[in-house]
Amino acid sequence: MKPDETQPSGRLLKAPESFLDPTGVRTVFAEGKKGRRDFIRGAFAAAAATAGAVAMPARAQQPAGDPAILELPAHSKGLGQPVVTDGYGKPSQYERNVQRRQSPGLTQTTQASVSFAPLQSLFGIVTPSGLHFERHHQGWWDIDPSQHRLMLNGMVKTPKVFTMDEIMRLPSVSRFHFIECGANTGMEWGNVAVPTCQYTHGMISCSEFTGVPLITLLEMAGADLVNGKFVLAEGADGSSMTRTIPMSLIRSGEVLVAYGQNGEMLRPEQGYPLRLVVPGVQGVSWVKYLRRIEVGDQPYATKDEAIHYVDLMPDGTHRQYTSIQEVKSVVTTPSGGQVLLDQGFYNITGLAWSGRGKIKHVDVSVDGGRNWRRARLQGPVMDKCLTRFHLDWVWDGKPAIIQSRATDDTGHVQPNYRQLRAVRGSRSIYHNNAIQSWLVQESGEVRNVQLG
Length: 452
Hints:
Helix content is 14%, strand content 26%. It is α+β, with helices and mostly antiparallel strands.
């Protein structure tokens, strides 16, 4: 496959798994019911058998071979670079195309507020900190941690003010969770077919977060955990982002006041030095630059809850306080902007997640949803975390429509657009978890299409 067409061009390389001719493709289809190892072994054996049937010229007439194998490159004969001692490590220069990008489908402003993670270029489930998607409501700040404070007030016996040092001295936990913006895939509501999965689904990332359970801090302040039904989380950026969080989520201990991400301190664009982690809930509730928690007995209906992050329903009412990110998935390879260079074996892969719990299984279709096959889930499969899935596929060179459909362990099944719009209408922006479709054309080019 080649890099997305939205990225600067690079060398076009064939993937090793693509070396199959039509004879090999037919042979593999005939063996499709075998196990996975036999499936792959049969694919390459068929290719080898076909090659062996061709009359080979005399050894003297054979090509000299691949110079990349036969000739030692400079890096195999010389002294390499020293360790990096004067700065933060960087990826290879050959991976400079893999970066966050601002969507062409959003209103352009002088100060960019959203960047999308390059899902099509990532492996496993963890998003590198430097590729984590961003969403800012008043830009980002690099705050001096020695001057930052967290205040707890409201329905508490003893209002508290914590310094960063005091928080980081408490017992900590580390957990892997996804964070997804409520508007992720929002442009697809209006039949806007943005080109790649970076733009359709790239407002999601997954990290290991480290911090102190919020319930620990509330107990230290003597919070009323019986009559206190909600907390208000407030950020220290210019927008004073404020969100209502149900106490029912906090009592379980899964809501964190986090200072660490992927083994290091939070980055400034991710809320350094302190942010809220609310697993399974839309990203706007993961308040960055966290400075205050207030305990109350009713929702706060702040500006970011009353006029923003609401959905207009078919009957004219607003769908409010829609926190949970429903079960969802997307195929990342092959996906929009990529090109299949040859017929033959491919590993279809993607990501699935649910704000309600763990992914139970993922089904994949290559014919637009008429037939489905169960994908393999790559471990670990964790609660409210991205899950990687895989499916073996042999492309015969004909058009195909690739889809994935996830089911979580609470029984919720990812809907198609017809099912989703039957309930939500077509005027929503947030919480679009419909099945994504990628059309593989005969040329091998993959593009975004939308099926009802």
